[in-house]
């Protein structure tokens, strides 16, 4: 599925020029001439990156991106303006927590690189969240196992994950029985739904 990039500028020829600049990039492009129209597009589409002009009638780019941040916090926000001042940059960063502040005319290579980097950051953040959720789920299962089998999570393992046995060979049989019971319990917790249908 293609990433969606939304350009917002009150001058239509600017958004068309931006699309032409990035025509070789593997994105789906949307455009709007007013922030209100852009918000409608955002409500109907899962937009990954918004590139907005700063000086627009009715609502500045900073105000628009602040609203985008509130409603769609995972959407990456970029300001593109011909009126670059330190004060404007500070306002944009503080209000909309923008990813980058670019000045017009923007170098084609810089714009393409900025959008690529923005998408990479978004994917990295999504993957981090997914991994965190996985760790939380696994921790929850381990806590349940520890309640039923105290000490099971404290077993020493080597680099490959194999259990390190320090007991004498005479205790091996009872240890194997314990491990077998633990494996059965783990399988019950991580049971494949397809197996249940058989």
Give structural notes.
It is a single chain. The protein has about 200 residues and is α/β, with parallel strands linked by helices. The chain has two domains: about 5-125, Rossmann fold (3-Layer(aba) Sandwich), CATH 3.40.50.2300; about 155-195, no CATH class. About 55% of the residues lie in helices and about 15% in strands. It has helices spanning about 10-20, 35-45, 60-70, 85-95, 110-150, 170-190, 195; strands spanning about 5-10, 25-30, 50-55, 75-80, 100-105. A five-stranded parallel beta sheet has the order 2-1-3-4-5, sandwiched between helices. The chain starts with a strand and ends with a helix. Mean pLDDT is about 80; it is low at about 195-198.
Short account of what is shown:
With 198 residues, the chain is of the alpha/beta class.
Question: How do the helices and strands line up, and which of them pair or pack?
Answer:
Layout: E1 3-8, H1 12-21, E2 27-32, H2 35-44, E3 49-53, H3 61-71, E4 76-81, H4 86-96, E5 100-103, H5 108-148, H6 172-189, H7 193-197
- What would you call the shape? elongated
Distance between the termini: 35 Å
Task: Spell the H/E element sequence.
Answer: EHEHEHEHEHHH
Q: Please tell me how large the radius of gyration is.
A: 27 Å
Largest sheet: 5 strands, parallel
In CATH, what is the class of the largest domain? Alpha Beta
Strand percentage lies at 5-15%
Strand order, sheet with most strands: 2-1-3-4-5
> Which segments are poorly predicted (pLDDT under 50) over 5 or more consecutive residues?
193-198
- The whole-number mean of residue pLDDT values reads 80
Helical fraction equals 40-55%
Q: What is the CATH-assigned architecture of the largest domain?
A: 3-Layer(aba) Sandwich
Q: What count of structural domains?
A: 2
DSSP helical segment count: 7
**The CATH homology group name of the largest domain:** Response regulator
CATH domain fold name of the largest domain: Rossmann fold
Number of strands: 5
């Amino acid at each position: 599925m293609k990433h969606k990039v939304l350009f917002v500028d009150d001058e239509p020829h600017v958004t068309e020029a931006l699309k032409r600049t990035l025509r070789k990039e593997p994105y789906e492009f949307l455009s709007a001439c007013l922030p209100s129209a852009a918000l409608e597009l955002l409500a109907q589409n899962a937009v990954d990156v918004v590139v907005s002009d700063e000086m627009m009638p009715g609502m500045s780019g900073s105000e628009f991106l602040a609203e985008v941040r509130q409603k769609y916090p995972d959407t990456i926000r970029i300001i593109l303006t011909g009126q670059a001042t330190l004060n404007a940059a500070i306002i944009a960063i503080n209000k909309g927590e923008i990813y980058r502040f670019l000045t017009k005319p923007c170098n084609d290579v810089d714009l393409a690189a900025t959008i690529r980097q923005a998408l990479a950051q978004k994917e990295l953040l999504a993957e981090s969240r997914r991994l965190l959720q996985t760790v939380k789920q696994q921790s929850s299962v381990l806590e349940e196992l520890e309640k039923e089998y105290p000490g099971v999570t404290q077993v020493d393992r080597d680099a490959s994950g194999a259990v390190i046995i320090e007991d004498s060979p005479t205790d091996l049989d009872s240890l194997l029985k314990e491990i077998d019971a633990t494996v059965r319990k783990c399988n019950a917790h991580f049971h494949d739904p397809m197996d249940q249908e058989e």
